[in-house]
Amino acid sequence: EMMIIRKTPREIALLKEAGRIVALVHQELKKSIVSGITTKEIDKLSEKIIRQYGATPSFKGYQGFPGAVCVSINDMVIHGIPGHQKLKNGDIVSVDVGACYQGYHGDSAWTYAVGEVSDEAKRLMKVTEEALYEGLKQAKPGNHVGDISAAIENYVRKNGYTSPEGYTGHGVGTSIHEDPMVPNYGKYGHGPLLKPGMVIAVEPMVHAGKKEVKVLKDGWGVVTADHSLAAHYEHTIVITEDGYEILTKL
Q1: Averaged in consecutive runs of 10 residues, what is the pLDDT profile of the chain (250 residues)?
Q2: Model pTM?
Q3: Rounded to whole angstroms, how far apart are CA atoms 153 and 46?
């Protein structure tokens, strides 16, 4: 049985502060991600900022995940464990950041270009970010979760790309992942009804190639089976009386 928790104004204020802290991390990453930085350095920098603002990294230790953030390069879609790999010119890197502030979470992923990237990489990033906002256009009371999902799927397909199956957006609150699931494919008019006070993370993951993925031996990193490039953009939002508000922004 699905358990969707609508948040009170007090809870939304805490979720907004958690979201602001996540956004501060991304603001810093945008400046700091350059050729030669390691994924572990990205992780350390992110954790430092999260803690500086009185929050803790949501992902650290979550189901045993060893990093503070997920850092996924090129053909890695999600859940990359930070390590000694150095980023180089032409790479794209997705960083998924979660921060827990006074028991409430913020969750946002963004894909960054390292130096000069290929036109294909630029287009993939642009389409994935646009797919996020296409989904968000459907985020309002009276619509269904499936409206968000269908809008994302249609936009991704129209642009000749695919999304992996089995990885979805989700509710956010005192848990980093709660009901409802927010898939990146679906049917208009299906799924739970959106109501004011619902807080969800919408997160298109998009492959330049086929939709199939494989999980690395480390049990975490998910890569495209055909090694095509992947991008990932995510915001946490609250459904308002007349639409939505992004919580993971400054």
Answers
A1: 92 98 98 98 98 98 97 98 98 98 98 98 99 98 98 98 97 98 98 98 98 98 98 99 98
A2: 0.98
A3: 31
